[in-house]
């Protein structure tokens, strides 16, 4: 078989050299224009940075206790949609805050920390807000937690759980009172009659242990009652020291790139206009 060799024609080399020469000639003629427009774009980015209102980002980490993660996220996303539509009076009523506070909130977003397909998923999620004033973060957090605890379905479930816990506390208190009464009776009988003293001592000790166990249950019920909530806060809103938006470096890069592109378009227009003028002559 004959081997076929590819031969590079001198014309191809000349075309590449001519193209490079034209490119260099174009840059030498319009380079200053490109740089001027590019730096003008950077100046515009700088001006926008100092004139655009600063937005600060902060996040809550919440763990739902009544609703599953998907249900809780859907509820918060509905508030985010209302905020986007600027339906502030309705939201102010939901959050139990002043409408003027919500005017400083630009967006609410959520993200599940652990993805799960289970409908009864109670893990945790983040709630991130963009605000124009960091002073509203703490009042806003209180408003969000108020709204999460006072939706109709959640409010009913909270009331039911609190009633159950209060009933359990009362039952434990009654049982403790009965045991203390029995303990007093046994101790009185022991003092009056020494017969079977060891048996009475064992009985008194058992009663004391039962009272201690019930006291521990009572304290647990009371703790659960005091912490009963629709969500638990794992991390509060923090006050950021620097704004999240706008970002100066990002605006400078966008301004430089946009200015360079605009300058290139202007230079091409002038170049073609000159070529057409020379052709007409």
Strand order of the largest sheet: 2-3-1-4
Strand portion = 5-15%
Order of helices and strands: HEHHHEEHHHEH
Q: What is the number of beta strands?
A: 4
What integer is the average pLDDT?
Answer: 80
Rg: 37 Å
Question: What is the CATH class name of the largest domain?
Answer: Alpha Beta
- Principal-axes shape call: rod-shaped
Quick overview:
This protein has 281 residues and is α+β, with helices and mostly antiparallel strands. It contains eight helices and four strands, in the order αβαααββαααβα.
How would you sum up this structure, described in words?
The protein is an alpha+beta fold. The chain has 3 domains: 18-52 and 247-280, no CATH class; 56-151, Alpha-Beta Plaits (2-Layer Sandwich); 156-229. It is 67% helix and 10% strand. It has 8 helices and 4 strands. It has helices spanning 10-51, 69-84, 88-95, 99-102, 137-149, 152-192, 197-226, 248-280, and strands spanning 56-64, 105-112, 125-131, 231-235. The protein has a 4-stranded antiparallel beta sheet, covered by helices on one side. Helix 6 runs antiparallel to helix 7. The chain is rod-shaped and about 135 Å long.
Write the layout of secondary structure elements.
Blueprint: H1 10-51, E1 56-64, H2 69-84, H3 88-95, H4 99-102, E2 105-112, E3 125-131, H5 137-149, H6 152-192, H7 197-226, E4 231-235, H8 248-280
Antiparallel strand pairs: 1-3, 1-4, 2-3
Helix pairs in contact: 1-8, 6-7
């Amino acid at each position: 078989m004959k081997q076929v060799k590819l031969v590079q024609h001198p014309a191809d080399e000349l075309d590449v050299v001519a193209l490079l020469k034209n490119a260099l000639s174009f840059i030498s003629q319009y380079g200053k224009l490109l740089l001027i427009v590019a730096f003008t774009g950077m100046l515009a980015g700088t001006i926008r940075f100092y004139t655009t209102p600063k937005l600060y980002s902060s996040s809550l980490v919440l763990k739902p206790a009544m609703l599953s993660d998907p249900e809780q996220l859907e509820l918060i996303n509905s508030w985010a949609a209302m905020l986007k539509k600027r339906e502030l009076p309705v939201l102010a009523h939901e959050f139990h805050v002043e409408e003027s506070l919500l005017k400083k909130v630009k967006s609410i977003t959520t993200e599940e920390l652990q993805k799960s397909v289970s409908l009864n998923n109670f893990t945790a999620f983040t709630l991130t807000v963009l605000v124009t004033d960091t002073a509203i973060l703490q009042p806003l957090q209180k408003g969000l937690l108020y709204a999460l605890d006072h939706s109709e379905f959640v409010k009913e479930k909270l009331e039911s759980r609190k009633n159950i816990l209060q009933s359990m506390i009362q039952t434990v208190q009654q049982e403790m009172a009965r045991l203390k009464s029995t303990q007093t009776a046994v101790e009185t009988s022991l003092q009056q009659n020494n017969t079977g003293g060891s048996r009475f001592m064992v009985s008194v000790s058992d009663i004391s242990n039962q009272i201690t166990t019930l006291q521990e249950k009572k304290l647990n019920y009371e703790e659960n009652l005091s912490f009963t909530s629709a969500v638990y806060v794992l991390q509060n809103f923090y006050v950021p020291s620097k704004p999240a938006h706008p970002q100066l470096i990002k605006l400078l890069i966008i301004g430089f790139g946009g200015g360079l592109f605009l300058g290139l378009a202007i230079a091409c227009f002038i170049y073609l206009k000159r070529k057409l003028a020379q052709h007409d002559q």
